[in-house]
Write a structure and sequence with these properties.
The complex is a heterodimer of chains A (about 375) and B (about 450).
Chain A: H1 6-20, H2 29-34, H3 41-50, H4 56-60, H5 73-88, H6 92-121, H7 134-137, H8 140-170, H9 179-191, E1 203-205, E2 208-209, H10 212-241, H11 252-277, H12 288-310, H13 317-334, H14 342-360
Helix pairs in contact in A: 1-5, 3-5, 3-14, 5-6, 6-12, 6-13, 8-13, 8-14, 9-14, 10-11, 11-12, 12-13
Chain B: E1 4-10, H1 14-24, E2 30-33, E3 50-52, H2 68-79, H3 85-94, H4 98-104, E4 109-110, E5 123-126, H5 130-144, E6 147-149, E7 152-160, E8 163-171, E9 174-185, H6 194-201, E10 209-210, H7 219-226, E11 231-232, E12 238-244, E13 265-267, H8 282-285, H9 288-294, E14 301-305, E15 321-323, H10 326-333, H11 337-350, E16 385-397, E17 400-401, E18 408-412, E19 415-422, H12 425-428, H13 440-461
Parallel strand pairs in B: 1-2, 1-9, 2-6, 9-19, 10-16
Antiparallel strand pairs in B: 3-5, 4-5, 7-8, 8-9, 11-17, 12-16, 13-14, 14-16, 15-16, 18-19
Helix pairs in contact in B: 1-5, 1-13, 3-13, 10-11
Classes of the chains: A mainly alpha (about 375), B alpha/beta (about 450).
């Protein structure tokens, strides 16, 4: 009975949800549904990103397949989420590449950048063994210039996508969102509150609840933040104090980077395993590439980073550095077009939901 | 399935699972025979959402207090005096412990859903509704080692001399006889058995919608009656509400209901009004429109509203039939155009001035009509006009078997069977002879499911 277009399919299901309402307190999606009587595409893109894919509503649903109404909201909203990443992305074609051929594109980029860096550095004199001299392979200014430029371009593209998404879901001008609304939404996003909103962990199957998916996500996001902090600290050391890399094993940048790297190995591996073990009815099988490409990119980056740390005093320095930097560069390029965007879309959806709830009346929290 | 169990539970809904868990927690072996496949397990409990329970103090999910006497009065008001008072009082008293018992077994709760705030004092809502509750119980049953057989249809009970020694089961095309130390029957009513309903209602059944599971065929209820069990409850009665006529024949559940009747008028296939759409608040009137529609030609009626109120009621799962004029709407619905125009014009002339307010009995009424509309009467004059076709939606039947306060089935000469217990809808007629009290079916199922499970385990162990 369902339409073939993902947004039309989700709309059909939400009409059933809006007449039923049993799931009202699982998560903020359902109160947001109940505030509406119709579901234009922008509203669907909002609701889809508000959904954390905890899966509760599929198993609780009296209309889930094989019921003829076939309500399967986690999958339907996952499909609309992918649609939203493409819809607001700039420039749009690149998002399509990631959503269709994610893993291939990701690994292709890593390989291409690594080969380019290897070729470009092959004429330089090899750094003295034991020196761990990164800048002997690639001069500091070249590294900062290249990565800074790519990173800024990626941020600009991401910012433009997010601005388009925000405008679409806000619709008519709703005005200023108070800071405390942003803080509340950010807290919910970072703690993944809605992955265990019902007081227990989210589902991975009908009678199956496991914490690993949530913990793996925390490890991934935490690992990413630590690596980001490591790089920032190292940059401050370099520019403000002229303390040059390589830093000692117990220095702040290396400790932060090591912990972050471990998180960024354990997290993505956990998420890849969780994805394989989860009931396929909870997700969109077509997004396997989109999901795994980001995880593989992060994994390659962290694994080569840790390898680099371990073998930085050996002749493997140059090839490892080139592969690692190739992975980082590929990740930067992928920022606006990969699954990386999901966190930002979700945060904006949470802000909007929080704002809607506050506007509705009193301080009804969700 | 093993060839023998201490306790065999017939059915797979709330009462059955409460019985199975209670029995298994006492250390006996338990088999649950669910006629439905796993995806449709749980009978009509999958369509429920709350349980009525007494409480002395407000809590996270219940406001104020709700005491035994008030609960009992609420029951008598809908069901009449002819109820089994000891049983009813036991259900009410023991409802006090249901919430905690359920919580320990994995059921989660939520505050009352929007549009159900009037139940916030009396009813405990399950987070995610009845299917989520069942999922928790089935998960618990699996942990404890209760065996559950799906697609397992009971085709006979080996009852002899007040004792049931075995249960005959058809499963995957083959027959098995399972020896049982004790049996709990929790297999619901016969609301999905069209032939049985036809015996009572005749061919009107063709116009009925069965709101719940197609698996409640009442076959095990029939076995018990054939074995001499004493019937209770009105054999001819069923609870019916007005649902959208486009609902599926079975299992449409909650979403096919229509909340807009107080906002407009309801006409039959001849375009004539059939009842007072504004007699009382909708929750109280909700159940009466089912049987009213069932008595109309073709078991069909149409509710008609105008654009003024289109956003004022719960959205329906089916789109309205829309007309730019009453004549156009009549043509769309296949109703006689002149008759409907006359009915609407006459209604509009009879509406007395006033300010409509759906939060109170506002006294906005008609004058000079048969039937009148007592409250919330306002002119139907703003296009586009909307209509929804109605049919009677059967929720449950009242016929059941008499039980004693131990939930033992009263078999012959008023004597209870020694090891045959009943819980849930199959015995609810002892307590709820007619009418409807929101969440009380789940109370009966939970309380008597636990009693039956305990009693069955105790009998089987001795």
């Amino acid at each position: 009975m369902h339409a073939t277009d993902p947004t039309a399919r989700a709309r059909q299901m939400l009409v059933v949800c809006n007449a039923c309402r049993y799931c009202e307190q699982f998560c903020p999606v359902f109160p947001a549904v109940e505030r509406r009587t119709s579901f234009p595409v922008a509203d669907l893109h909002y609701l889809a990103n508000l959904c954390h894919n905890c899966g509760e509503c599929l198993y609780a649903c009296q209309y889930a397949p094989p019921h003829p109404f076939g309500v399967s909201l986690p999958r339907a909203l996952a499909e609309v989420r992918a649609d939203s990443y493409e819809r607001y992305c700039w420039p749009p074609r690149l998002a399509e590449a990631f959503s269709r051929q994610g893993a291939k594109v990701a690994l292709g980029l890593v390989a291409a950048f690594a080969v380019l860096l290897l070729a470009a550095t092959s004429f330089a004199s090899a750094p003295a063994p034991g020196s761990a001299d990164f800048y002997g392979v690639i001069p500091h200014d070249v590294m900062v210039g290249l990565f800074g430029l790519v990173f800024l371009l990626a941020l600009a593209a991401l910012g433009r996508s997010l601005a388009q998404y925000w405008r679409a879901i806000r619709g008519v001008d709703l005005g200023f969102v108070p800071i405390r609304t942003w803080v509340a939404a950010l807290r919910d996003a970072v703690t993944l509150r809605h992955l265990h909103g019902g007081g227990v962990d989210c589902t991975s199957g009908l009678d199956d609840r496991l914490p690993w998916r949530r913990w793996s996500h925390h490890a991934t996001l935490g690992g990413f933040a630590l690596c980001f902090a490591s790089t920032t600290v190292a940059a401050i050391y370099h520019s403000a104090f002229e303390w040059m890399a390589p830093h000692g094993y117990l220095s702040l940048p290396v400790v932060l980077g090591t912990l972050g790297g471990i998180g960024l190995v354990a997290g993505p591996v956990g998420l890849l395993i969780s994805r394989e073990r989860r009931d396929p009815a909870l997700g969109d099988p077509a997004q396997r590439g989109l999901d795994s490409s980001l995880l593989v990119l992060l994994l390659v980056t962290s694994a080569t980073g840790l390898a680099l740390l371990t073998f930085r005093d050996t002749a493997a320095l140059r090839p490892l550095l080139c592969i690692h930097l190739g992975a980082v560069l590929a990740f930067f390029v992928a920022i606006p077009y990969s699954k990386f965007v999901h966190g930002f879309y979700r945060l904006l959806a949470l802000v909007h939901a929080e704002d809607e709830a506050r506007r509705e009346k009193g301080l009804e929290r969700f | 399935m093993n060839p023998a169990y201490d306790v065999v539970v017939v059915g797979g809904g709330n009462a059955a699972l409460c019985a199975a868990l209670s029995a298994r927690e006492r250390g006996v072996s338990v088999l649950v025979l669910e006629a439905a496949p796993r995806d449709y397990r749980g009978g009509n409990s999958r369509h429920t959402r709350n349980l009525r329970c007494v409480h002395e103090h407000p809590s996270e999910f219940l406001s104020e207090a709700y005491r035994e006497d008030e609960f009992f009065d609420d029951l008598v008001r809908v069901s009449g005096e002819r109820i089994d008072e000891p049983l009813a009082r036991r259900a009410i008293r023991e409802s006090a412990t249901c919430g905690a018992w359920m919580g320990v077994r994995g059921v989660r709760f939520q505050t009352p859903l929007r549009g159900t705030l009037h139940l916030g004092r009396t009813n405990l809502f399950f987070l995610g509704g009845g299917k989520a509750l069942l999922n928790a119980y089935y998960a618990r049953a699996q942990q404890l080692g209760v065996d559950v057989a799906y697609d397992a249809e009971v085709v006979g009970l080996g009852i002899d001399g007040g004792v049931c020694r075995s249960v005959d089961v058809r499963r995957a095309g083959s027959m098995e006889t399972i020896a049982a130390g004790a049996v709990v029957v929790a297999s619901g009513g016969f609301e999905a058995n069209l032939e049985w309903l036809r015996e009572v209602w005749g061919d009107a059944v063709d116009g009925f919608v069965i709101r719940g599971t197609p698996y409640n065929t009442g076959t095990v209820l029939r076995f018990l009656l054939d074995a001499g069990a004493e019937p209770v409850g009105d054999a001819a009665a069923c609870h019916a509400v007005a649902v959208d006529a486009r609902a599926p024949k079975f299992d449409g559940g909650i979403v096919t209901r229509l909340d807009c009747i107080p906002f407009g008028i309801v006409v039959d296939v001849h375009g004539q009004r059939i009842g007072d759409e504004g007699e009382d608040f909708w929750p109280r009137r909700y159940a009466e429109w089912g049987s009213l529609v069932a008595r109309q030609p073709d078991q069909t009626a149409f509710v008609i509203v105008d654009a003024k109120v289109a956003d004022a009621f719960m959205p329906s799962v089916y789109p309205p039939v829309v007309g730019g004029s009453i004549a156009e709407l009549a043509a769309q619905l296949g109703l006689p155009v002149d008759a409907l125009e006359t009915t609407v014009a006459g209604f509009n002339r009879a509406v007395q001035p006033g300010t409509v307010n759906h939060d109170v009995l506002d006294g906005c009424h008609t004058r000079g009509l048969t039937p009148e509309k007592s409250h919330w009467a306002q002119r139907i004059d703003t296009p586009p006009y909307w209509a929804y076709p109605l049919r009677p939606g059967i929720t449950f039947t009242y016929l059941g078997v008499r039980v004693d306060v131990q939930a033992r089935v009263v078999l012959r000469r008023g004597l209870p069977a020694r090891n045959v217990f009943a819980a849930g809808e199959v015995m609810a007629g002892n307590i709820l002879r007619r009418g409807y009290l929101a969440g009380f079916g789940m109370t009966i199922g939970t309380v008597f499911g636990r009693i039956a499970g305990r009693g069955a385990a105790a009998y089987a162990r001795d």
